[in-house]
Specification:
With 226 residues, this protein is an alpha/beta fold. 59% of the residues lie in helices and 11% in strands. The longest helix is centred in the middle third of the chain and has 34 residues, at 112-145. The two termini are 25 Å apart.
Length: 226
Amino acid sequence: MVQKAKILLVDDRPENLLALEAILSALDQTLVRASSGEEALKALLTDDFAVILLDVQMPGMDGFETAAHIKRRERTRDIPIIFLTAINHGPHHTFRGYAAGAVDYISKPFDPWVLRAKVSVFVELYMKNCQLREQASLLRLQLEGNGKNADGEAKESAGLLAELSARLAAVEEQAEALTKQLNDDSTDAAAVATAAHLERKLTGLRRALDALEPGTGSTSSVSSQN
C-alpha cells in the first residue's frame, strides 16, 4: 500500500493553517501543522516531507531564518519550500525568499487552485523518489543474496531481476510523462529541474539492473554504484 506524503504547513496564525488545510485536503495527503519556525524544525527532525509551505512573517524566527536552518541540514536541504506572505515588498523581498532556498513565492491572498496545483507537483515528485528508493533497496537485497546458494537460487534471482525491471519500467514511464507535463505547462524551473534529477537517478538504476543480466559482468561493480 502506497503511503501518503506529508506536507508541512508553517504559520503562526491558526486561521491561516485552517485555510491551508481546507485548500489542500483534496490532495488526500497527510497535513502537519507547525505554528512557529522552531516547531517546524522539530517536526523535520523525525519526519520526511514532500514539501513545506512556510509563512514569511512570523514572530521570533521568521520564514527566512527557518528556511536557512532547513537548508543547512543535510536531512532536509532538498525539501522544496514554498514561501507564503501577506506583504509584498517588491523584487528585493522576493529575491531574498529565493536566496533563502524557496522554490516558489506566493503572496496572500492566493488562488486556491494555483496553490493546490503547485503543491501537487512536488507531492508527485516525492512519490516518484520514494518508488525509486524502494527499487534501489530491493536491488541491494538481491545483490547481498547473490553468491550464498548460486546454483539453487539462479531461477529465483532471474525472476526477481525481471520483476525489478518491470517495476522500474513503470516508474520510468511515469517519470517521463511527468517531465513532459511539466515542460508543456511551463511549470516552475525548480520543479522541472527536480524531475530531471529524478530521471537521471532512474537512468543510473536502469544501468545497474542491466549490468546484473547474465553475461554482462560481475555484480561487484554494480554494488559500488549504490
